[in-house]
Each structure stands twice: as C-alpha cells, then as structure tokens.
Amino acid sequence: MAKLVLVRHGESTANYDNTYTGWSDVPLTGNGRVQASLAGQRLAATGLQFGHVHTSMLQRAIMTAYIIQDEINQSYVPITKSWRLNERHYGALRGLNKDVTRELFGRKQVAQWRRSYIAEPPHLAKPDLEVKYSRWPVSIVPVGESLADAQERLLPYWTDQIAPGLLAGQNQLVVAHGSTLRALIKYLEQIPDGEIDGVEVGNAEPIVYELDNRMCIKSKEILHAD
User: Fold this and answer.
1) CA separation for the pair 182, 55 (Å, rounded)
2) Which domain, by its residues, includes 110?
3) What CATH number does residue 191 fall under?
4) Which residue from 12, 71, 113, 135 has the highest number of Cβ atoms inside 10 Å of its Cβ?
C-alpha cells in the first residue's frame, strides 16, 4: 500500500524568537533551510517516489516543500497549496513571546491554549484579510482556533485530496505545521482528546506511515536527524 509522509517545516524566525505565529507568514531561518535540506536527504535515502505534494499557503512550509522536492530530485511532482493546511491560528497571542505569555497568564493557562484539544486562545477583534485568501469567503480566515477547530478545517482536505491519492497507490508528501500535523496524527492514530497534549512533531523530521486500503496504519517510522 502507499505511504504517507508528514513533515513539519524547518525552523522559522518565529521558532527562533519563541513567538506565536499561526497564520503570520514568517520565513525560514538559515538553520531552517539546512534542516529542510537534511530532511530531504533522509527521504531521498528511502527511495520513495511521490505522486503529489501538499502544503499550506505559508512560506515556511512552502519553502521547506520546495527544498525537499529538490533534494529528492522530484521537483516535477505536482504540489498543491491549501489554506486548510495552514498552522492553527493563535488569535491575539500571535507575535507574542511564549515566555512572556506564561508570565502574563500563568503557565497552566498557556499550556491549555497550546497543547489541549479544545482550548481556544484569545481571539482577534476581527480577521486579518490578506490578498492570498481573497478568492475564498471571508469566513475561512479565523480570529483564533483550538486544535479541534484546526482539525475540522483540515479533514475535508484529507478526505478529498490526500486519501484518494493514497488509495490510488500513490505516495503522498504533506509539508505543513506543528499543530495541523498534530491534528492529522490525532485522526490517523485515533489519539484520545486528553492524550494529544503529549504529541510533539519536530521541525523537519519526516514521519513515514504505511497505510492499508482502509487507511489504517500498518507501520510508522520517524526519520530523526542524526
């Protein structure tokens, strides 16, 4: 059966600065580009050939996908960029340093916002409307999301775009973000709501799933950095 590979983007400037990003379109750091390149090299060593690449509309994921495609010599493979794969929207926390928010709101509250399935961060007063999303209704742009909200917008893309490719026998590469990949992993691995807080997705560490024809997991391997 086909394989599904999930990759979180390489280190971004917000990762480096320890700030919340969400839908803010921050770039990779130099280290993030190196991480993406090394992830691509580890994937190249597997010999996997992909039928399609899926990523978000945020440059840190897009550039990671491009770098990986180059490293595996598969730049010709079609790539789709979707807002449904964007990072979870952190609302009014966006741009704030995570350590500062712990001082302002307390560690317990921040842990709830960051790691739980249903907790929502403080919302923005109104959505930030960017040209890149202008082809869709304004309602797609969040003012703040829980992980459950992110999963709700993600799953239609899984059902309509990723799963059909796997069922057709084509390996699929998804390059996205920590929270949206956690949401997808929760769905694939049937992780209970109360246990998702313990799931971590490292920057640029490919997760390789082999799935059967019912989309059940047969095997899982994480290609860790040396």
Assistant:
1) 15
2) 3-222
3) 3.40.50.1240
4) 12
